Amino acid sequence: MPDPSFPQPQDAALIPRFAGLPTFMRLPISTSALGVDIGLVGVPFDGGTTNRAGARHGPREIRNASSFIRRIHHASGISPYDLARVADLGDSPVNPIDLMKSLDLITGFFSEIKGHGTIPISAGGDHLITLPILRALASTTPVGMVHFDAHSDTNDRYFGDNLYTHGTPFRRAVEEGLLDPRRVIQIGIRGSIYDPSDLDFAKAAGFRIVFIEEFVKRTPEDIIAEAREIVGDKPVYVSFDVDAIDPSQAPGTGTPEIGGFTTFEAQRMVRGLQGLNIIGADVVEVSPPFDLSNMTSILGATLMFELLCIVAARFQA
């Protein structure tokens, strides 16, 4: 039976899933991370987008789509709400017309979450949001990262001297000492590039890049076994850009690349991360204006639940 002292999702047998205020997984909203083990957070920011905007609307639609998610993981049997105190912590503040101010606001919001010992699982927003989150979570020591994406996001600058876009966060994170590049693996990389040197920084820094051509010759479980070896038992962040998945299954994203992996391959890989020392995670680049039948928002909600379950497993007695 659920622990009555833990926050619980609304009971769909009492309040239909199409009714009530939309929150992540139909959980209570908490205005503070105090006493919360795992916080679900929205970051409605796409000021780092270089082409098709819209990911700022991702958190709202993912919340709505998460009403489809039930209590218990069908494969693992994990009921995260019975293992950990989980709540919707609302949205990070952002400034839609001031990119640098937004980065500071996001860092401040997540610093407070970290200060309460809460593990955040976030819904973006474009991929630049990971940089200010890492500024908060990795402020004292660099962390490893398991990164699912079609793109390396290690470019240097766009449009002259713009250092902060959704194509640059992990270059900046290495430069700022937030990521240990020898403990970073990027899975699903593919698509055309601007210049032959585009991936030189990531390779020179020590990132392990798994191109999609290599991925399809192996199994998801094999790839994740390697990922576990790379990140080890030290703190690790998990970042999942939905454009890692083929756009036939995730059309609602700003920078689609054909030839990606499937939603089930994604689930298998995330499940394989259980037991790692995960300090935070995000699902980014869900862009509802480009979605069809909410399928990408449902994907985002489901990936958040997969991440929630593997993080909650750490709280098992």
UniProtKB/TrEMBL annotation:
<dbReference type="GO" id="GO:0046872">
    <property type="term" value="F:metal ion binding"/>
</dbReference>
<dbReference type="InterPro" id="IPR006035">
    <property type="entry name" value="Ureohydrolase"/>
</dbReference>
<feature type="binding site">
    <location>
        <position position="243"/>
    </location>
    <ligand>
        <name>Mn(2+)</name>
    </ligand>
</feature>
<feature type="binding site">
    <location>
        <position position="127"/>
    </location>
    <ligand>
        <name>Mn(2+)</name>
    </ligand>
</feature>
<protein>
    <submittedName>
        <fullName>Agmatinase</fullName>
        <ecNumber>3.5.3.11</ecNumber>
    </submittedName>
</protein>
<dbReference type="InterPro" id="IPR023696">
    <property type="entry name" value="Ureohydrolase_dom_sf"/>
</dbReference>
<feature type="binding site">
    <location>
        <position position="151"/>
    </location>
    <ligand>
        <name>Mn(2+)</name>
    </ligand>
</feature>
<dbReference type="Pfam" id="PF00491">
    <property type="entry name" value="Arginase"/>
</dbReference>
<feature type="binding site">
    <location>
        <position position="153"/>
    </location>
    <ligand>
        <name>Mn(2+)</name>
    </ligand>
</feature>
<dbReference type="GO" id="GO:0008783">
    <property type="term" value="F:agmatinase activity"/>
</dbReference>
<dbReference type="InterPro" id="IPR020855">
    <property type="entry name" value="Ureohydrolase_Mn_BS"/>
</dbReference>
<feature type="binding site">
    <location>
        <position position="149"/>
    </location>
    <ligand>
        <name>Mn(2+)</name>
    </ligand>
</feature>
<keyword id="KW-0378">Hydrolase</keyword>
<keyword id="KW-0464">Manganese</keyword>
<keyword id="KW-0479">Metal-binding</keyword>
<feature type="binding site">
    <location>
        <position position="241"/>
    </location>
    <ligand>
        <name>Mn(2+)</name>
    </ligand>
</feature>
<dbReference type="InterPro" id="IPR005925">
    <property type="entry name" value="Agmatinase-rel"/>
</dbReference>
<dbReference type="GO" id="GO:0033389">
    <property type="term" value="P:putrescine biosynthetic process from arginine, via agmatine"/>
</dbReference>
<comment type="similarity">
    <text>Belongs to the arginase family. Agmatinase subfamily.</text>
</comment>
